[in-house]
Design brief:
Keywords: Signal. This is Lipocalin-like domain-containing protein. InterPro entries: Lipocalin-like. By secondary structure, the chain is mainly beta. The chain has a single domain, classed as Lipocalin (Beta Barrel), CATH 2.40.128. It is 14% helix and 50% strand. The chain is built from one helix and nine strands; from the N terminus they run αβββββββββ. The chain has an eight-stranded antiparallel beta barrel with strand order 1-3-4-5-6-7-8-9.
């Protein structure tokens, strides 16, 4: 009987410890910093419940890949290589991260995306308005 009581108390303590360590504050949120330079790799959407991604057509053949640079100052710099000479055009705006939302504003135009994946090697976002998925690598 004494052993049964000890086991019951032990099981109850473990159960309470396991539930007390759970944090609902960051459900689905990653703690990897978002700041960094990301190279555009793929774009796509969800069709019939499945992700369909292709190599980013925005990346011009023979040129470096386009990029998104999210700086510590909350500046967002988008680099676009164009033309036969691969001329770089940079557009600067700002960004705000709120939990798993990323809002980028250039001029008076803002777009908000869900952060689908953020690791030390990848940023995958899904535009909340268009549903377009964009995958960047670091």
């Amino acid at each position: 009987m004494k052993n049964r009581n000890i086991l019951f108390v032990l099981a109850l303590s473990i159960g309470m410890f396991a539930t007390s360590c759970s944090s609902d504050d960051n459900d689905g949120e990653t703690i990897v910093p978002i700041q960094g330079k990301y190279n555009l790799r793929q774009t796509g959407t969800i069709i019939d419940g499945k992700e369909v991604l292709i190599d980013a057509p925005q990346n011009q053949a023979g040129c470096p890949g386009d990029y998104l640079d999210l700086r510590v100052s909350n500046a967002a710099v988008m680099g676009d290589y164009n033309g036969s000479d691969c001329a770089l055009t940079e557009t600067t705006g700002t960004y705000v991260r709120s939990h798993n939302d990323l809002t980028i504003t250039v001029g008076n135009v803002s777009s908000t995306s869900d952060i689908m994946n953020l690791t030390n090697k990848e940023l995958k976002i899904k535009d909340k308005t268009t549903g377009v998925i964009t995958v960047y690598s670091r």
